[in-house]
Amino acid sequence: MRVCRNTTLASLALVLVLSGCLFTLALQFAWPSVARAESPPQRYIFVLSRLDLPAGAPAELDGILRKEMTAAIAKSPLLEAAIPKDAPPYDEKAKGRYGNKPFHKYMARHHLRAFKVTVQVTKYEPTLRANEKKPGQVVGCSIALRIFGETIPDRVMAFSGEGSATVIAEIGNKVRAKDRKWVDSDAAELAIEKAVAMSLTKLETKPAKTKKRRKKRRKKRPH
């Protein structure tokens, strides 16, 4: 009976040792995935540097588009409108990644990528027609635009996005300035939101890795 008891205790000790080893191995394998899950998401800085209007567009449209672009950036948790003040200075004329190494290290450490953004309005079409349903008129606006982003400070083209919208509103017989501004602002807001969403989708989508084909070596025929 004493021998059986000692054997049982030895078996139990062996089971406990093996269980501890398995738990340690499982923890080691699980830890990288936990660390990856806790890492903060990538965020993007959209610095509006240029806005191009088509010929004939009113000067007021520039201010409307800038305001709506700022609002679209503020709405997204992934976007910022300016580079942090404590970021190291950079030089756009420096060649290669190592020319701005402190800046790149700072951005990588804070999970940030910065871009100079250009907004190009390709279509601005104000409309005004009679209201067929009741007395008055229908004022409208159609806007189509594209946005482009190049990396800061290396100035490499990184993404593009497109958006368009048409907005109409029923008004009285007289067109007031605020009626025109209302439809212009709404159309600009919708078009910019679409373009920003498309740009973020492209930035968040990782490019598929292409498999390199190995060149087959030709065997030399024996002479």
Explain how this protein is built:
- The protein is an alpha/beta fold and 223 residues long.
- Helices cover 40% and strands 27% of the residues.
- The chain has one domain (43-204): 2-Layer Sandwich (Double Stranded RNA Binding Domain), CATH 3.30.160.
- The protein has a 5-stranded mixed beta sheet.
- Strand 1, helix 2 (60-75) and strand 2 form a beta-alpha-beta unit.
- Helix 2 (60-75) crosses helix 4.
- The mean pLDDT is 84.
Task: Spell out the helices and strands N to C.
Answer: HEHEHEEEH
Separation of the first and last Cα atoms: 81 Å
Mean pLDDT: 84
Structural class by secondary-structure content: alpha/beta
> Main beta sheet, described?
5 strands, mixed
> What would you say the CATH architecture is?
2-Layer Sandwich
Determine Rg (CA atoms, Å): 30 Å
Main sheet strand line-up: 2-1-3-4-5
Provide a concise account of the structure shown.
With 223 residues, this protein is an alpha/beta fold.
Question: Any chance you could write out the topology, listing elements then pairs?
Answer:
Elements: H1 2-38, E1 43-52, H2 60-75, E2 79-80, H3 101-109, E3 112-130, E4 137-151, E5 157-171, H4 177-204
Parallel strand pairs: 1-2, 1-3
Antiparallel strand pairs: 3-4, 4-5
